[in-house]
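Pasting two entries for a bug report.
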Amino acid sequence: MILEDHAGDVVGKARKGLGIDPAQVAKAIGMNDEQYSNFEEYGTYDELPDMPKVGKLLQLNPDKLLTILSGWYPRAASLEANKTVRQITTNEGMEVHCYLVWDTASGEAGLFDTGWSAEPIVTLLNENNLTLKHLFITHTHHDHIAALTPLRKQFPDAALHSSSPNAPDDQRNKPGQVTELGSLQITTRETPGHADDGVTYVIDNFPGFAPKVAIVGDAIFAGSMGGAPDHYQLAREKVQSEILSLSAETLLCPGHGPVTTVAEQNAVNPFF
């Protein structure tokens, strides 16, 4: 699985978030317009961009940006210790992850987003004799909720959790709200920016020494963050305060790209 964003994507998201013209960035890092366009779109370049200048102009950490440019990939992150967390990946022109989490003793399960298709979710529920009790939505972009309608029809008793302003009051998240899933505890943290209704769910109290898991949607990716051209500073502030403030070993499970940890993102993510 490749990173969701290459270094050019990171630079492009920062540039758009700050409202800076591409020609201004191209001039600052010593590229012509065509070279810079290729860098943003494909991550390619003829000569290494001047990272200190990029960082100063776009409020990115130049050393961390160079780390991404050099081919960094998450090393420490794995769901292996969290035996009852499964990443489910579907692809309909865009690859997206959803996550099924369950409590072994009760057989109660919670689904975080739906991805494109209900089929692999239902298969996993049946294989493990699970009862779907909760549907948690990180944000209502279509790729994350495409299978919501068929799942709601098949599991009408599953409680829906969303921060969408269109959600009924009894389904709408409240900041700091705690939902119990058997012995597991799921805490809501509001993370708008990429989406107005963005929310992160932190899952704790796994058996043994398994780390916390944060289902972050598109708020943050391994080495990057979700695009937020309309609410860029808010997005950065919320990721910093609500996600990167979690314990270092917390696993970050994004909607796209590989799983990472809080420690890794504090060390390498150019936005923070």
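Entry 2 (this is the one that rendered wrong in the viewer):
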Amino acid sequence: MDYQVLVLDLDGTLTNSKKEITPATLEALIDIQKMGKKVVLASGRPTRGVVPLARQLHLSDYGSYILSFNGARITDCRSGEVMYNRCLPKDALPDVFRLASAFAPGRRGHPDLHGRPHHLRGYIPTAYTQLESGSTHMPSLERSDFLSAIPPQANKLLATGEPEVISRMKDAMAQHFRSYLSIYCSDPFFLEIMPRGVDKAHALVKLLGSIGLSTEQMICCGDGYNDITMIETAGLGVAMANAQPPVLDSADYITKSNDEDGVLHVINTFMRRS
């Protein structure tokens, strides 16, 4: 198969444990873009939190893409055009806030707040809040007027906390909202509250349709729970060796870990072959 699109999760996939792209992987990703192939950075982060890596990979030079907020937004890096954008229904936000409040502190909003470089937070931070803020290089700001401060077009909310608390919160929210919102964990300590039907796979199908390619021409690499749908949808679904067990089970191929240049191994095996 002549694969034309490489989709990459960020933490635990593209970047190593130091949150860095290795020089060899960086060179390979630029090389395949020079060959005319597209790279998509697919993340739960806000768009602004993905931009530094997109710049490092020169995505704007080659017309590649950012898929942010777990698939709620797609951005064309060359033009800056937002090609796809799904937002949370405003009437659901008070109930999300109320249900999260019953479990634990640490729940915060995660919109791209009018383009300003920070997260909006409703409660005191947890260690997991700090983890997210550090990985995106975006400080979090606590707001006592959290609900009124959320902009009209918020793409997602993120709850953070201990895994056992997040698991119970997930069950409660899924039962309450049923099909009105998408509720799922990207990691055991992160609960994503998304518009209905939004995930990475759904957004990628939209993107492929707009650029005239098929899922069979796509490789997707990931390590987390929120990568499973895109791995199952891709022509070649790849799990990192360091992936969560359900991700490993869903993959067509298991590459090396993120600390062993697993993405580079995929490129050399499937996209640079003569």
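Dev reply: Rendering is fixed now. As a check, the viewer should reflect this: Confidence is low (pLDDT under 50) at residues 106-122.
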